[in-house]
Design brief:
Length: about 400
């Protein structure tokens, strides 16, 4: 410690007797030890991660690395995360987790704003980390990432570039440069900090799961998580209406609000056009990695993104449905060529705002229930233990 900084600490704590300092430190470290023991005994498990929370990706990945069970890994976007759904068991991955029986467990490693590019980078990280006993990988394909507004236009390779850059702070061995992405590596000091936090997360269960104790109703303190769990949601909404729109239990609280048309945006009037370029290239790379690290063929998992229907004209809507059919035909070819399973529903039924969160970006619990019903027979075929659901 430098002399100047030492002076600051001395003057700040001068009023505190040395005996009191020793007692405080003793109780502090004993408390940390007890919490750590409690976490190791309880060993909390999470089948999903928070939207816009990459620290959740780190925690889930560390769980997957440490787990000795057979795994089903999910990668993709926040629609697979279940963004906007209050309880994780109400989303597709949550329902899959409940339907599965030992010895399988599902790990939801989708990323906020993710696409086939970020899925490729994340799967590469799993391969480097030697995640063991992966039975199958689910690769979510977001239709909107394959759609453009003009014929001949290409989809972007950098749709999730911000997500991938920030992910380096939480998964320090990801390598976007390996895949030709123009994404700067973290500066050395930040890279060292990211590696230190990763190691600390491996060593300490309490540190790894600290983010899952937080709640934004009152102040992100674990004690309030218990209190808020006991108070009816209707009362909480009256006491803390603004906080109610924040995050809780790893999910944005948008299921509490009806869909708002004001969130829709006007378009340029051009019907969306399907193109496989760029996003399709990375999808094939993601599939190749998934086949190397898993025992069974990967699943290509896709369903329409609902908000496209609401913000476009009837003519554009017909063009969008046509583009979805072209995407389905393309994915069928990819699945046949790579030996993958395909689950795809290009359905008009998702036009119903009752299935949406109050924003245009995610499905609510009712929407996820409908998606699960559509795909449940396919999961039943691949995993008979899910047939009872």
């Amino acid at each position: 410690m430098s002399s100047s900084r030492r002076g600051i600490y001395v003057s700040y704590f001068r009023w505190l007797p040395r005996v009191s300092v020793k007692r405080i430190l003793l109780f502090f470290f004993v408390g940390l030890a007890l919490l750590e023991v409690g976490f190791r005994i309880a060993a909390p498990q999470y089948s999903r991660i928070a939207v816009s929370a990459l620290h959740g990706s780190r925690a889930i990945l560390q769980q997957a690395i440490a787990s000795d069970e057979r795994k089903i890994i999910g990668v993709g976007d926040s629609t697979l995360l279940g963004g906007g759904v209050y309880d994780h068991q109400d989303i597709v991955m949550g329902k899959l987790s409940q339907a599965l029986d030992d010895p399988w467990r599902s790990f939801n490693l989708a990323l906020p704003g993710g696409d086939t590019v970020s899925s490729t980078v994340m799967l590469d990280a799993m391969e480097k980390a030697n995640v063991a006993k992966i039975d199958r990988v689910i690769i979510e394909v977001l239709p909107s990432k394959f759609l453009v507004s003009e014929t001949g236009q290409k989809t972007s390779a950098y749709a999730a570039s911000g997500t991938i850059y920030e992910l380096q702070r939480f998964v320090p061995f990801i390598d976007p440069q390996k895949f030709g992405l123009d994404i700067a590596a973290l500066p050395r000091t930040e890279a060292v900090e990211a590696k230190a936090q990763w190691r600390l997360g491996n060593l300490s269960m309490m540190y790894r799961h600290r983010d899952f104790l937080r709640i934004e109703y009152i102040g992100n303190y674990p004690a309030f998580w218990t209190v808020s769990a006991l108070i009816p949601r209707s009362i909480l909404m009256r006491l803390f209406p603004e906080r109610g729109k924040g995050t809780n239990r790893l999910a944005a609280r948008m299921d509490d609000f009806p869909y708002e048309r004001a969130y829709a945006e006007d378009t340029n009037g051009n019907p969306p056009v399907f193109t496989p370029h760029v996003q399709g290239d990375y999808l094939e790379q993601a599939i190749a990695i998934a086949k190397r690290i898993s025992a069974k063929p990967p699943i290509i998992f896709s369903f329409p993104i609902h908000y496209e229907y609401d913000r476009i004209t009837q003519q554009e809507r017909e063009g969008y449905l046509q583009a979805l059919q072209e995407l389905k035909a393309y994915l069928e070819t990819v699945a046949l060529h790579t030996g993958s399973e395909l689950m795809f529903v290009p359905s008009r039924e998702f036009q119903n705002p009752d299935l949406w969160t109050r924003t245009r970006a995610h499905f609510n619990a009712k929407g996820h229930q409908k998606i699960w019903q559509m795909f449940q027979s396919e999961f039943c075929r691949l995993y008979p233990v899910t047939c009872r659901e």
